Amino acid sequence: MALGVLVPLKLEHVFDLRLSFGGELPLGPTSLAHDRVFHLVTGGTVSGPRLTGVVIPNSGSDAPCRSKDRTVIEGEWLIRAADDTVIRMTNAGYGPGAPMSAPWRADVPEFASASLHLSPKFEAPDGPHAWLNRTVFVGKGDRRRTDASIRIFAVM
Amino acid sequence: MDSQIDQHGDQAAPRLEFVFQIRIDLGERVIFGPLVRGGQQGFVAVKGGEITGPRLQGRVLPGTGGDYPYIWPDGTFEFDAHYLLEASDGTKMRLRNHGYRHGPKEVIDRLLAYEPVDPSGYYMRMTPSFEVPAGPHEWLGKTVFVGTGNRRPNHSIFRYWAVY
Questions:
Q1: A13 with B125: Cβ contact below 8 A
Q2: Which residues, in sequence order, are bridge partners of residue A65?
């Protein structure tokens, strides 16, 4: 088998994302045995070697589904890059299981020990940021009740 | 063995742990278009295959799916595969694989002709996800994975790493 032609993967730091959340809107238990909660994304910052900008205020939501075995991360919002390009970011991934009543983590942790593992996608217009459309990304991060910190890497 | 890759320590990059590889036996590759939305639609059926590696062993269940890639107007392949796996203990699971392949046209043309290509000369990465029952394999449904692949005339080989 031609395994030799499968290169090992590298992770390249792209940017760090900080999100601010507004009020919590719980849906409560659903027919999928999840507790879903919505947080309006009220703003944020993007800083890093390959993308800088801001999160456009109130441009999306963070809507995790918590169950006892896992938390499924789902969210999307808009980034305005430093050159004014608007980029849609869709976030997905997993966190540890927890009941709805469980407290959010009190501190933004070291990324190495962060509890959220993420697989974000981007939609950017043609131009200097279009590489985001055709690249696989992973992320690690964590959240407090009112904000989150996520570090994004390109899989190269 | 590149089972664990650590780099960019100052950026606290996630640790990648090699978990398994899947050899997928493929049917005839089909591409049609141009589509109304632009680009082209591809399809290839999954005829079977084998899963080997430290964290999962088993087989690909024949006739349970395929890859339905969307080929962008610029030639980028966006993989969208789904099919069923059966672990060696009999557990069934659904794999969905999403990713991208692109590169210089001359490199991709040689790849499509199954000629030897330097794998660093083009981009082919994916991120699979799993629907899996509770039990010994449920970690697959709680873990982010990344992978790469090697395209051969009648099969493809994918290798996957867990992101920790």
A1: no
A2: A36, A72
